[in-house]
Amino acid sequence: MTELASSVDAHVGRRIRLLRGLRKYSQEKLAKALGITFQQIQKYERGTNRVGAGRLYELARIFDVPVGFFFDELDGFTSPAGIGLHEEQAPFQKGDGREETAETSAAKKKDSGIELLMLPETLELARAYYSIRDEKTRQQLLNFIRDVAERSS
Which residues does the annotated region (Disordered) include (predicted)? Predict the structure, then answer.
């Protein structure tokens, strides 16, 4: 297996682990939904076993995300010009529309890696945020957090 393939497999595995944590799925529960063993889920998450296309499709269906989610933030996840695909792949989640410089983009990539998303406090914050039923209140809270973050940087 090539080094690039291994890094892609590890990236996809981290995305599986992230979604499993966000959705509160144990490895056993996810394995049962896929009809495989929890050990196989462990191997996927570590990137030691490659996730096939059909299995990736099933994971996307279970987690209710587009298949492309598993490849978001992967370096080079755009379509090269001239192979019949004329648009870049859109990321799963878009930012707030603010312009980024190359410097802030690089810093953001370094500091907002998938590892941050897997921290217990991040998961707790996300769960608390989405437990707020009123969308307007959630948006106000998000705007407040963005403002505080901007002022502190």
Answer: 82-109
Tell which residue, 42, 47, 66, 46, has the closest CA to residue 56. Answer: 66
Residue 97 lies in a domain: no
Confirm whether pTM is higher than 0.85. Answer: no
Q: Any residues with CB less than 8 A from the CB of 44 and at least 6 apart, and which?
A: 12, 13, 16, 51
Tell whether 53 is covered by a domain: yes
Give pLDDT tens digits for 105-126.
Answer: 444 444 456 667 767 788 788 8
**Long-range contact pairs involving 87-93 (C-beta distance under 8 Å, separation at least 24):** 92/65, 92/66, 92/68
Between CA 104 and CA 99 the distance in angstroms is: 9
Name the residue range of residue 54's domain. Answer: 3-71
* DSSP for residue 84: S
Residue pair 70/56 in contact by the 8 Å Cβ criterion: yes
Separation between Cα atoms, residue 127 and residue 125, nearest integer Å: 5
Nearest CA to 68 out of 90, 83, 86 is that of 90
Total domain count, the chain = 2
